[in-house]
Amino acid sequence: MKYGYFDDTNKEYIITSPNTPLPWINYLGSDNFFSLISNTCGGYSFYKDAKMLRLTRYRYNNVPQDCNGRYYYIKEENDIWTPGWQPVKTSLDEYSCRHGLGYSIFSSAKNNLQATLLAFVPRNDNCEINQLKLKNNSNKEKKISLFSYVEFCLWNAVDDMTNFQRNYSIGEVEVHGSEIYHKTEYRERRNHYAVYAVNSPVDGFDTSRDAFIGPYKSVEGPEVVAAGKSTNSIASGWAPIGSHNINIILQPGEEKSFIFVLGYIENPSDDKWESDNIINKKPARELLNRYNTDEKVESALLKLKQHWNHLLDHFNLESNDDKLNRMVNIWNQYQCMVTFNMSRSASYFESGTGRGMGFRDSCQDLLGFVHLIPDRARERILDIAATQFEDGSAYHQYQPLTKKGNLDIGSGFNDDPLWLIACVSAYIKETGDIGILNEMVPFDNNEEKSQTLMEHLRRSFQYTNTHLGPHKLPLIGRADWNDCLNLNCFSNEPGESFQTCSNFESGKAESVFIAAMFVKYGKEYAKICNLIGLGEETDKVLESVENMYNAILDHGWDGEWFLRAYDAYSEKIGSKECASGQIFIEPQGFCVLAGVGVKEGLAQKALDSVKERLDTRYGVMLLQPAYTKYHLNLGEISSYPPGYKENAGIFCHNNPWISIAETVLGRGDRAFEVYSKICPAYIEDISEIHRTEPYVYSQMIAGRDAAAHGEAKNSWLTGTAAWTFVNVSQYILGIMPAYDGLSVDPCIPKSMDTFKIKRKFRNATYNITIHNPKHVEKGVKSLTVNGQEMEGILIPLLPGVTQYDVTVIMG
Q1: Parallel, antiparallel, or unpaired: how do β-strands 173-176 and 179-182 relate?
Q2: Which residues contact 431 (CB under 8 A, 6 or more apart)?
Q3: In the chain, which stretches have pLDDT less than 50?
Q4: In this structure, are residues 754 and 810 in contact, taking their beta carbons and an 8 Å threshold?
Q5: pLDDT digits over 280-333, tens only?
Q6: What backbone torsions phi and psi does residue 391 show, to the nearest 5 degrees?
């Protein structure tokens, strides 16, 4: 069942029913100011940090779903409705929500009154713009009362939700004409405030939630809206809101437009205030004046669209598969950008109050983003590296506002260091910027302990190389990629859980997954060493990689597939000897994509075992059989019910590893099968089962053991986005950046014929046409560049050449 459709021309997904199975959201903003907006106008806004600088309040886990957003109540006689359906839920004559790239448009109608609401965050300004147009499509005059509504969060979202004894006394506002200023904390911090304004004279306002809604009422039916008149309330303590009342008369056929702006203002440190508690309105008014006409709003929207068109022009596919085209050209890259901005901090499944920017998460997100804006990728790499410790380990997360390590989460996730090598190598391949290796970067954000980025990579490599267990496999620490596999939390103190276990550092549990990472990214580190002339170090690195390769073969192979790990007692995890959890997805994918077991014939056995034991119609499960009881020696993984999350759920993030591994073996049909099973555009028809947005990836789909097999959760902010784009662009379509050029080596379904790719790479444009006349799955017969046939699959970098016309014949 569908609840909408793709509009590829306008790069939009059009939702045609407001009551989707879950709220289907979009992200507004690409710089410092961000908003989440659902298909019913729910969501919230923040500046840089969703925890510390949140502008508007949102109620997670509430009933009804998706409670609080930006609402515009329209009252005509006895009818009250809103353009996004929520919160009033009046039956509408028309409804659509168009989620585009950085903007959303709602179009609704009731009683021949048309409402069109445009929402977006403009480039290089810290505000959300809401342009509301009302048009009278009847042949009679209409008298309308319009009420806007946002509820201000008291900045710190955690304190806002918990510290009521204080917060019920600190709300402060000022009102100046059509401008409502939320200045809670201004008395204390004196450097920021919010403004909510409209470009029209108002007939009234409210800033007190109690006055606007009324006692024992809700946003579904506020007293002020029912009465048709604002109270001009000034919030003093209690809960501040922003609401404007505009009385409108529309003649037949007449349309009027109103521009509402919610903005964040940060004063320069040397600014002069009018008094200790009256804000300086000048910077806010300068902001508002930039968007006070329809022409200015339309110009800002055009610049936003041009920005996205420019970004998406870096990689473009033309094939006879519309679903593949729209995912590659639009939605997958868009999600990569959003995930790069947000990490895992702020979605409808992450409240934005706990997790910051993940070390591992951000490194992986960069893999799918680096081709879009390399300069921002460079900046992110340096931020990530600065949260590393001198021994090469790292904070698992850091806060986006301070860029300092998150002490609450701490360290000890032993896969983290190797991900830094992964993202730096991807950046250098994309840009050729070897100079980044010479950048001075502090350890633990202590400038006195700064070393070159190359030294950070060296310590990343050596951390793993010097933290080996009894089988010469890497120690897992608190966990590896799977945060829920806590193999060293085997002797919890009273009151301690796997989440707070403190004895992981002394544990001897080992990870085959980290071993596979070490092989793959150890090779990349060796190439970087060789690139800058460190021949002796290159040889030593490759020797360590070879030793790890052999350790995997000796102690990480279980006969038909790769083991997952050894626990703290050196008992096997992910073995046929286990009652549950006999086979895991992670080592099968990562070992093979790292090349482990390919020449020995083990790789094919491992992937065949994946298909036989882990595959389902909705994707590849993380493990089988599912754990049916809690195992203290395994930690959180066995705390989930069978079929959910890490306990045999379909974890979409690592499905691309299996697809990539299949391309290593040249099995294009199977690689594409794995790709398409979790790809939103290919499963749009089962939206009633899948439930999350049909235009972006989710983190998890319920596995075969779950009651709701096929149901997805945790959409938008997931490493699935980056890894899937790497998979489809570099391994399936085969366009892979290298240190010395661009290589072309597709691995595609046999049915795929000719396709074209435009790829911008290192200040040049590559127009690549790939023909598959023999309908093979993999193999390049010939490669022609600007009329000259080349040896192999690498398009070399030619001095001064800015356009490459490339023809590839597969066979």
Answers
A1: antiparallel
A2: 370, 374, 378, 762
A3: 492-500
A4: no
A5: 889 999 999 999 999 999 999 999 999 999 999 999 999 999 999 999 999 999
A6: -85, 0
Question: What residues pair up with 687 in beta bridges, in sequence order?
Answer: none
- Here the tokens at position 578 are 């286990």
Q: Where are the alpha helices (DSSP H) in 221-316?
A: 223-227, 282-289, 294-312
The beta-carbon contacts of 669-673 under 8 Å, at least 24 apart in sequence, are 669/749, 669/750, 669/777, 670/607, 670/611, 671/731, 671/732, 671/747, 672/732, 672/748, 672/749
pTM: 0.96
Cα–Cα distance measured from residue 294 to residue 334, given in angstroms and rounded to the nearest whole number: 27
Residue 595 CB-half CA count within 13 A: 12
What are the structural domains of the chain? 4-309 (2.70.98.40), 327-610+629-649 (1.50.10.10), 733-810 (2.60.420.10)
The whole-number pLDDT of residue 496 equals 45
Helix, strand, coil shares, percent, the chain, to 5: 30, 30, 40
Strand partners, 514: none
CA–CA separation, 785 and 792 (whole Å) = 12
- Is residue 50 within 8 Å of 346, Cβ to Cβ? yes
Q: Round to whole Å and give the CA distance between 70 and 752.
A: 46
Note the pLDDT of residue 279: 77
Half-sphere exposure of 452 (CA within 13 A, CB side): 8
The catalytic residue positions are 483
- CA separation for the pair 581, 153 (Å, rounded): 44
Q: What is the pLDDT of residue 186?
A: 63
What is the reported pLDDT for 495?
44
- List the one residue out of 344, 428, 419 whose CA is nearest residue 378: 428
Helix axis angle, 374-385 to 416-431, nearest 10°: 150
| Angstrom distance (rounded) from CA 328 to CA 316 | 7
pLDDT at 503: 54
